[in-house]
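Field: COMPLEX_INPUT
Field: COMPONENT_COUNT = two
Field: RESIDUE_TOTAL = 826
Field: MODE = joint
Values follow.
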Amino acid sequence: MTQGEPPDDRIPDKGYPEWFERVTGVGSSIGQAMVVPVLAFVTALIIGGIIIILTDLDTLRLYGESPGEAAKQSIIGVWEAYKALFLGAVGSQRAISDSLFSATPLILAGLAVAIGFRAGLFNIGVNGQMLIGGMAALWVGFSFSLPMFVHITLALFAGIIGGAVWGGLAGLLKGKTGAHEVITTIMLNFIALFLIAYLLKTSFFQAAGRQDPISKVVAESARLPTLFEGGRVHIGFLVALAAVFFTYWLLFKSSIGFEFRAVGFNPDAGRYAGMSVAWVYVSVMAISGALAGIAGSNQLLGLPPFQALPGFSGTTGFDAIALALLGRSHPFGVLAAGLLFGALRAGGRSMQGLAGIPLDLVLIMQALIIVFIAAPELVRSIYRLKAPEGEEGVQLTTGWGG
Amino acid sequence: MTDVAVSTTKVKARTTAEERRATFVGVALVALGAFVFWAFGLNVAGDLDSTFKLSLPTDRFQGIEWTVNTQLLGFVVAGILAFLGGVVLRRSHLKWTNRILAVGMVFFVLAFLAWAAGGKSFSFVGMLRSTVILSVPVTLGALTGLMCERVAIINIAIEGQLLTAAFVGTILGSSFGPWVGLFGALVSGALLGAVLAVLSIKYRVDQIIAGVVINIFALGLTSFLASRVLAEAPHFNSPGRFTPWPIPILSDIPVLGPMFFDHSFFVYGMFILVVVIHFGLFYTRWGLRSRSVGEHPEAADTVGINVYRTRYRNVILGGLIAGFGGAFITLAQVPRFEENITAGIGFIGLAAMIFGRWMPFGVLGAGLVFGFARGLQTKLGILGAPIPSEFLSMTPYIVTIIVVAGVVGKARPPAADGQPYIKD
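Field: COMPLEX_OUTPUT
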């Protein structure tokens, strides 16, 4: 286990299928488990660089006149962009603070997806759960005037409940009617989106004197205090860390988590072992939604201007899928992946400001990272690596019917 | 004794599944009738008239309209709904439950429209016309999904395919004219289809993850290019527009003419595709092979059908259809590209495919219903009806959840849907 050699003779009779090993990293050394993610990241950076070069119209025109000078310009362009990305991510104390700040909702949302994967459920509905949870937290945040600690706790609790209800609804639909969670959560995302758009125009939520859909401002006492002066990272990051440990304990140390994983592994076996599969679906989706709800609350209680706009969850729900895959659905893996993506986010913003590269490049890189992680053969064929024996693609979901 | 009791209840339970649904639908219809009686009848002033205009200002035959007393229509529709509910509750024609429900919904919408237009007149034909137009990308997206899922490949990348095709259509259309734009859109849709096929067939990536990836990639790439290239070079963002091709004589028919026969060729293409795919799926060798690959790939393989090739072909053909739909958005509907211009149409398409139960004509019907909901939204805004447009926007999604939850009868996907096939 501790050696970095390919596990040739340990394949048979482990009691679980090979893909499980790959998703979890169980049974392989850390080195072996890191090869694909690292190569995926490097490849995404390379392709990102190519995209930067191909979309620099001024330099492309220069290639007709003096190709040497143009090539130099292209390389400088990519260098400048990645330098801004790197420095914006980890180049200063302020940059690191920004990275941790950006990582906070990503870690929480990534955990939400990861816990679903462990139970065999694909929660694409993190965005919707963030919206509903966030609105619940917002409601507590602007409606009451309480001592700070009590107020923050109450607001986060409201966020947890809001997210859990929205997520649990999908679990209930799956448990009781067999409706596939991928479809219901996609649909619930859109329903939440329009519900929020409506709520933000009601007099209860809308900021006084505004015509556009924007909410009232969260009271001072419910805002998440920053961890140190001048930085953006706030106690939400500590909440995220706590959530990582809680999820780890829940999944691997508690009997509920055992049921979750057993049902995820084989629902029929779980049913025969006397577990209520429907109950597991409801509780997994509720817990997943609760984590997403904290992420959503975090976006409103910890992010100036402390107001909700329509669709304030952004693309976090989809980033979360990438995170869960990159972190192999393990809470600590999600933490590491969340820190990486947070750094990419913060760096991407500085890249946008300093080098004029749109933040969307980060989105492209994320998509590439997921595809390479999900199709390790693809990475191996690019780098001509030999596959460890018995490896297969990740099959996390089943058809609509099951 | 207990054995006998158990077995009889079991037999009963088997017969009552349909009956329970009929009871549910019947009660819902009666309740809806009561609601219409109150909201669109009692609640409306007795002297209000609603006018449905049945001709457009550009039509050959002008001034066709239908004026009706709003309250009276409300009462009549309430009566019809109660009657239909009663028919369903008798449970004598269980197979007709859904059809009766559909008829009831049409009457409900009629009463709702009359109520919304109370005291005013509004262009009913204009709304039906925009229903057809708005349903085009939804139906084409749903047909894409159908082509893929019939061979058991789940495609939730429809959104990304539409978006990319819309983008490529804009760029190439601006540079070389709309026909080249259309060609580029078709190719880009097919290419993304090929990517989905390779990832899910060759590399056996989880199909839903592959779809999510394509969506994120398409959104990222098109937004990136839009802000980096289109913003700097706006001449790339003015593609020519395909103008309507009115069909002689047919386009002059009142109501039906502006609805169906006075459109760009995309609309005709949608109807033709629905017919062709229906015929192809159920009356040709290709269709039989596709369906068998979707239902039972092992059996299909045993009788000599190449499962992988069938899947590749259908997913790429589906991509072509998505390309056609994406081109419609930027080359006929709104002749310019904006960031995330599809804004979830691909997912409505996915919903329409499920609502249409994986059948081409079902998909067309679902597309029209969802197109109607979207058209209604803008219309109600103009009429100033006191109902938030957001709730109408939610309708397709809520309807889909109701359908997948089996409330309106079980929608059954192809049996092998989403499962990779591994040839021994």
